[in-house]
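Sharing a chain and its predicted structure for anyone who wants a worked example. Both blocks are below, sequence first, C-alpha cells second.
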Amino acid sequence: MIGGYDGSYSSAIDFFTPAETQRDKGTVDGMRAWRTDAMHQHMYRTAAFWGDKVLSITDDSNDVFWLSQVYYLMGEYGRAINLLQKKDLLESSVACRFLAIQCMIRTERWSEALEYLGEENQYAHDSLSESSMNPADGGIKLEASMCYLRGVVFKSMHNIDKAKECFKEALQIDVKCYDALDSLISNNMLTSKEERELIESLDFDNQLHGPDSEFVKMLYQSKLKKYDHLDEQDEIYQSLSAKFKTENTDLLYSKAEMYFTQCSFDKCLECTKKVLEMDKFNLACIPMHLVSLYELNHKNELFYLAHELVDQHPKHSVSWFAVGVYYYLIGNMAEARRYFGKASTIDGHYGPAWIGFGHSFALEGEHDQAISAYATSAKLFQGSHLGPMYIGMQHLQQNNVLLAQKYLTFCLTICDSDPLLLSEIGVVQYNLGQYDAAVESFLKVIEKLKGSQRKNVIWETTWLNLAHSYRKLGNYTDAETYFLKVDAISMTGPAKASAQTGLGFIYQIMNRSSEAIECYHKVLAIRPGDQIVSEMLRKVLEDKVYLSQMEWMNETLPLQLRGVPLAEKIEQENKILDRLREQGQNGRRRGTSPAPPTTAAPASTTPGTAAGLSRMMTGIERVKRKGSLIDLSEPSTAITRRRTRRGFKEIRSEAEEELEEEEEEEEEEEQLEQLEERSDDDMDIQ
C-alpha cells in the first residue's frame, strides 16, 4: 500500500482525514447527505450548492473531490480542474488526478492530460501494481483505468500503435475494464486472430472467482469478429442465453453480427429490430441496422429512423451517418457525401462514415477521391480489412490488376474468410487468366454464403463469376448450370441480361444456334441498345443461314457429290458453276433461256442463277476457314459494387476486338461478292 492507496477507487477517495471539528460534524454530515442525494437525483446545481458550503466549513480534501465530481457531472470541466489544481491535490491524490485527467480529455487538452498520465504506466514495476491485483472491494482497479485513459489520449493524438498497447495493458491489469476491450474491438485495432489471442492471454481465473471467470470470458468472446469460428460463436450464444432470464441486447447484437458477416441481411435485420425494440437508441447497434435496411432497400424505414436520430442525438456521428445512408440509397451522392462528411467531422475516428464517404465517390467513378477516403479508414482501423480491400477494388476498376492483387492479398493476412474479399480475389485471378484458382475462390464464396437468402445480388454475381470462369476453362456444362441459376432468381435487370448473354455465348460455341438466338433476343428486350449482343445476334443468324444453305446443297446437288470430301466437292461444284455460266452466255447469244444441265436437280429446287450459287460457295469457304463460330475475347474489368458492405463485382464478357476483326473480314467478303456480281453483269451485257 502506497500513501494509504491499495489500488481500488474507494481507497483512493477515502484515505483523506476529515478536518471538521466535533461541533460541526452534525451539520456537515447533513449537508453531505443532501449533496449525495442531489447527485443521485441528478439535481447537480443543488449538489454543487451544498457541496460548496460543506467545503467552506471543512476545507477537507474529500469534499474537494466530491464538489469537483459534481462540476464534472454538470459539464463544467474547466471549473473542476481549477478547483483540484487550486487545492494542490493532483500530485497527492490519485483519484483527484484521475478526475482532472477525465476533465482534460473532455476539453481535448491532450498534451496536458498526457503530462499527468505519463507516456508509460508509472506503476508497472511498482509494489502498487502487485498490491492492487486484488483490491479490497473487488472493484475496477484504478491503475487499469489510468492505462485506458492513456490509450484514449494516444488514440486522439493519432498514435494508434501506442493506444492499442495501452488498452491491452489495461485489460491485463484488470479483465473487468470493459472500456479497454470495447475500444480495441469497436475501433478495429486488432485482427480476428489477435483478438482471440488477447482473450486467451487474459488471466480470468486469478482475477475472478469461480464460475465468474468462465462467464466473463464467454461474454468477451461473444464480442469478437464473426468471420470465422461460427460454430464456436453459436455455442457461446446458446450458453449465455441459458444464463439470462430475458433476451439480452448484447447477445442479440452478437447474433446479428454473425448473420451480417454471412450476408443474411434479412435475419440480421430481425435481430437488430429486436435490439432496438428493447433499447430504442442503442447507438452501437444502429450502424448495422442501417446497413441492413440499405441492403434490403427499405427506404421508408431508413428515412424515419434517420430523422428520429437527428432529433434525439444531433451531436452524435451515427445520426448524420444515417442521413447519409438514406441519400446514398436513393442515389443522391452529393447529399450523401455531405452527411458522411458531417459524421466524420463530429468524430474523426468514426469508421462507417469514412467507408460511406469512399463509396459515394466510387459509385460516380471518382477513383482517386474514393481511394483517399478508404486509405484514411485503413490507417485508423488497422485490424479491419475493409479499407485496403476497397482500395484494391478501385484499382481493379481502373484495370490495375497487379496493384489490386497486392492490396487484396494483404487483406488475406487480416481476414481470410470474408465472402466479399474471396470474391474479389477470384475476380483478380480471372483477369490474370488463373481460371482454376478463380473457380476455387468462387466456390469458397458459395460455401461461406450458405444459409443466406438466395434471391439477392450476392448470389447472382457469385454465380455469374463462377459461370464465366467455367466458360473460360471450356467447361460449358457447369457454366450453363450457373448461368441458368442466375436466370432463375433474376426476374429482370442487369443480372438476368448478363446470364442470358453468357448462355448465348456458350450456346453459340456449342453450335446450338436456335437457343443462342433466343437468349440474345431476351437480352435485347432488357437492353435494346446493347451493341455487342446485337452484333453477336447478327453473326449467329448469318451462320445459321450459311449452315442452312449447306444443308440445301447437300440435298439438291447431284447424288454423286454426296460423301465426296469437301475439297473435291468444292472443285466439282466450281465446274458446275462454270458450266452454268457458259450455258447462260450461249443462251443469251441465241435469245433463249439456258437449259438446266442433265446432272443438276430440277429447276424448281435450285437457286437458278450463277450469282446465287457463287454467294453460297463463298459461305462454304467462310465456314471452312473460320472453324468454330466464335471465340470470346477476354472480359473487361469487373463492374463496381453498389452497396456499403456487400454486393459483388460481376465479370462481364466483351468481344470488341474479335467483332472488329469479323467486321473487317465481312467487308472484304462483301466487296468480293460485289465484284463477282459486277462480272456476272458484264457477262450479261456481253
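Comments welcome. The two ends are 126 Å apart (CA to CA).
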